[in-house]
Specification:
13 strands
């Protein structure tokens, strides 16, 4: 039995990369998040994606799949309100992940689940997720949020693909870098991404604050199940977040020996649609000791703060002597 969201057609056979090229972006996303189910609490991934230049499986896919598994064990009227996870070991994209859900608590208002992800019997991912039944609005009196920053609207910002294509024609780009960009553009990618700072795609950036703002949505319409949109947001919340820490250093990719997510947390505040534009407002609040702490806020286009994110990651550099500390100024839009 396959599971993700009731609004989608589930892909049963394992498709090849060549088949992916013929599928719509939503089909590719569905395949990335669909799981096989065995009994009540055990699941297995159907496909895993290793991004270009990455060490292992895309962390956002593990988060999304973990949430798919956990939410499949709770009633539909209990949406997720928070999750916390650890990337215990890098994932091997050639070996499917076996997920096991433990039902820690089922209360009147809350349900709690823990999940372990294993490859070849070895732990590589862990998650705890909490689900909360909607409260009676009469009891809700406290409500406010941080204001969404002012940025260019998404229809005025070039797409990630257009920015990469423009980079291919820029003077001074090495042949190796051009090959990397060509591989990135050749991979089926289900998300539409637009960096508000157009210089934030693939080039050296110097003397900037550790912030970046990105418009995101799926390439194609999803169904109407709010829980499926939460799983998709979990998937794309890992995209580019940790890279925010590198912006003030202005270092090209060749100086980075390793960059890997260590843990990841999300808080879901209200309903949203992942197939409509959302602004991902990211910043790095501290970098040092080879680790960086980055936070993010996902806003609906109407300014409503829908999701908050925090992630710590490991960043190691090669032989170039670089201080592992920097002073970051306040997050102020430069646009």
């Amino acid at each position: 039995q396959s599971t993700w969201g009731e609004s989608f057609h589930f892909i049963s056979p394992m498709s090849t990369s060549a088949e992916d090229d013929k599928k719509s972006p939503v089909d590719v996303l569905e395949r990335a998040l669909t799981l096989d189910r065995f009994g009540d609490n055990e699941f297995r991934s159907k496909s895993l994606w290793k991004p270009t230049m990455a060490r292992g499986v895309f962390g956002g896919q593990l988060i999304g799949q973990g949430l798919v598994a956990c939410k499949s064990t709770v009633p539909k009227d209990l949406p997720v309100h928070s999750l916390h996870c650890y990337f215990v070991d890098r994932g091997d994209p050639s070996v499917q992940v076996d997920y096991k859900v433990s039902r820690l608590r089922d209360g009147k208002s809350f349900a709690t689940r823990s999940l372990s992800g294993n490859q070849n019997g070895k732990a590589m991912f862990a998650m705890v997720a909490s689900f909360h039944r909607q409260e009676d609005q009469k009891s809700v009196r406290l409500q406010y949020q941080q204001t969404m920053p002012v940025v260019p609207p998404p229809d005025t910002v070039p797409s990630r693909e257009d920015q990469y294509r423009a980079l291919l024609n820029r003077e001074g780009i090495s042949e190796q870098r051009k090959e990397q960009i060509a591989r990135i553009l050749a991979q089926p990618f289900p998300l539409e991404i637009r960096f508000c700072d157009v210089s934030n795609v693939g080039i050296q950036r110097i003397n900037q604050t550790a912030t970046q703002r990105v418009w995101m949505r799926t390439k194609g319409k999803l169904g109407n199940d709010p829980r499926s949109h939460q799983c998709v947001a979990a998937y794309f919340s890992d995209f580019s977040l940790l890279e925010t820490a590198l912006i003030p250093l202005g270092l090209p990719n060749r100086d980075v020996k390793m960059i890997a997510s260590l843990d990841h947390a999300m808080w879901f505040h209200t309903n949203f649609r992942a197939d409509e534009w959302m602004l991902y407002d990211m910043e790095c609040t501290r970098a040092g000791a080879a680790r960086a702490l980055c936070t993010g806020r996902l806003y609906r286009q109407d300014g409503t703060l829908a999701v908050s994110v925090a992630q710590e990651g490991l960043i190691r550099f090669g032989e170039m002597p670089v201080s592992d500390n920097y002073q970051s100024t306040a997050a102020v839009s430069k646009l």
